[in-house]
Amino acid sequence: MLKPASDRLDYSEMLTPPFGYETTFAVGTTYSLDLDALIGVCLALGLSESIDNELKDNPIYLLEALQRTAEKILVFCEGGQIKVPSNSNALHILLEKMVVEVVMKNKKSFHPKFWIVKYENEEGEALYRCLVLSRNLTFDRSWDVAVEIEGKYDKENGKTKPLHDFLQSLTKLAKRDSIDRNKRKELLTLAEEILNVNFELKEKEFTDFSFHPVGIENYSIEETGLFNNYNELFIISPFLSNGIIKKLNDIALSNPYHNNTLITRKSEIAKLKPSSVTNFETYVMKDIIVDGEEALSEGEQEEDLLKQKQDIHAKLYLKTKYSNSELFIGSLNASNNACYGNVEFLFKLYGKRRYLNVDLLRKDLFGDSDKDNPFEKAEIRDDEEPELTAADNLEKIIKKICRLKSHACISGGGDVYSIDIQFEGPIENDNVFIKPLLSNQEKALSNHLVFENLKMLQLSEFYIIKAISGEESVYRLIKIKTENMPENRESSIVNDIIKDKNGFIQYISFVLGDDYLLSLLENKNNMKYGFLFGNGEIVPALYEKMLRAAARSPQKFSDIKKILDLITEDNIIPDGFKELYQAFERVVAKK
């Protein structure tokens, strides 16, 4: 995504199963997490649809995506870095089982951006896809990079041992008992399978590859080869430390090409000393690009130009030495925390300088003229390093809160519940507040809190933390392990989203459709003309879809059964539908 006009990657497409395959299990890691972006991942992995289409606006269809993927997705993120949704609703509760917060003991950060997904076809053949990204699981528009590689089960080759070790490390890094027992088993099974997966490169520019987790047991930055000397080096790092840049600067060999390059953010320039970049030309993104990308999407008119804030967010290192090249892509910033403390992930590609070199990359990024170049040279001065902002300090406060042991317990029943929350350890700041995700009750954070008079749909393991300093405030979600969660909570969510008979017919029609987006459009059309439901009878179109599904996709009836079991409200399931379903179920069972 370094050239958004021509090379933009679609996060949804990168996760969507190949034709003929379905998602079996997916493990993702990210520093910061947007729950709405995670719903988009569920659309891609569960329904093979993009979050950009109309499905994202209809909770009934999103419900099906979450139902399909609830047991198949596990996402690890940095504790205290879950974004508060702009429009929180019951669907977000269904993401609880998927999200695991990681709190580093050394006060550093869990920072890898990574996916490993297992797909299977009808014959039971497995395909494995690995994504290594610089992008968080958010809707940030900044410029990022990603690499995708696929492989099939073969025999142990040694290349995937780092992947195996990284997946296993996730169970040790996560909070105790924060991973669902069944998903933990799936994760460890996937880790063992990965040892026998043969990933293959498809691009001729690269001759080999290797995986490099950093910061887990037995894996350090030195083993990556990043700090080996070089003739040429091109760095893109949005955040940096002067010491790491100086270290990279000082290991340069004689350079006949004179084109070592560093691209970073303008806010980071003050951290650098002139003596630390003697071998580099340093660039930042032009203000006109940062302040708003004029993006003309396909099908849009000129008056629909989008203006969106952005900056560089890619982490990339291209090194050449004599005739050889190495390209590093992943989550690692050129900072002290990233190299010595954080958990990170890098993918390393090997090639020859004639195909992979700094000149080619500079031309690709900078264009043919200064007008085309989105970057400009930065002046490095002996300034003092910038002090932390109020927002930075508030982030640190929330990070400390995430490191406190916490526990919650629900009491009550029927229509009224209470949540008792306890935090162990000192709470140092008075201007921190907490409230349940779907409740307006807010309390000052203390070691013991009780939220009373909550309804079933206000019960969640997600809580909003608000930290305030003067006019500055930071909001984050945290997840608290909760006991005595009502067993029928998911049923209440399903009832609340489907609501009535028309919603039920929409849902079943959607499940039975061969093309989800087409099913949505059909349902919209039927709703427009009032053909979905009437006189207590199942519409003929639905009966025809059930016939087609019985012949072609009998597994869809198990999806219908699951939703029938969850619906408890009498006014949702149309009269006669259960009997019709049971008749089809008997036919399908005989096949």
Please give a structural write-up.
The protein has 591 residues and is α+β, with helices and mostly antiparallel strands. It is built from 18 helices and 25 strands. A hairpin with a 2-residue loop joins strand 18 (405-413) and strand 19 (416-424).
Q: Low-confidence spans: pLDDT under 50, at least 5 residues?
A: 293-307, 527-536
User: Strand arrangement, largest sheet?
Assistant: 10-16-15-14-11-12-13-17
Give the class from helix and strand content and strand pairing: alpha+beta
Give the N-terminus to C-terminus distance in angstroms.
48 Å
Report the portion of residues in β strands: 25-35%
Radius of gyration: 26 Å
Mean pLDDT: 88
| Number of DSSP-assigned strands | 25
Biggest sheet: strands, sense, closure? 8 strands, mixed
Give the proportion of residues in helices. Answer: 25-40%
Work out the helix count. Answer: 18
Shape assignment: globular
Please supply descriptive tags for the structure shown above.
alpha+beta; 591 residues; 8-stranded mixed β-sheet; 18 helices; 7-stranded mixed β-sheet
Secondary structure layout plus pairing:
Blueprint: H1 4-7, H2 11-15, E1 21-30, E2 33-34, H3 35-47, H4 59-69, E3 73-78, E4 82-83, H5 90-93, E5 99-102, E6 114-121, E7 126-133, E8 146-153, H6 161-173, H7 181-194, E9 197-200, E10 206-214, E11 232-236, H8 242-250, E12 261-264, E13 281-285, H9 287-290, E14 316-321, E15 324-330, H10 336-339, E16 344-352, H11 358-366, E17 375-377, H12 390-402, E18 405-413, E19 416-424, E20 432-436, E21 443-444, E22 448-454, E23 462-469, E24 472-479, E25 482-483, H13 489-498, H14 501-512, H15 516-529, H16 540-552, H17 556-566, H18 577-589
Parallel strand pairs: 1-3, 2-4, 3-5, 11-12, 12-13, 18-25
Antiparallel strand pairs: 1-6, 6-7, 7-8, 8-9, 10-16, 11-14, 13-17, 14-15, 15-16, 18-19, 19-22, 20-21, 20-23, 23-24
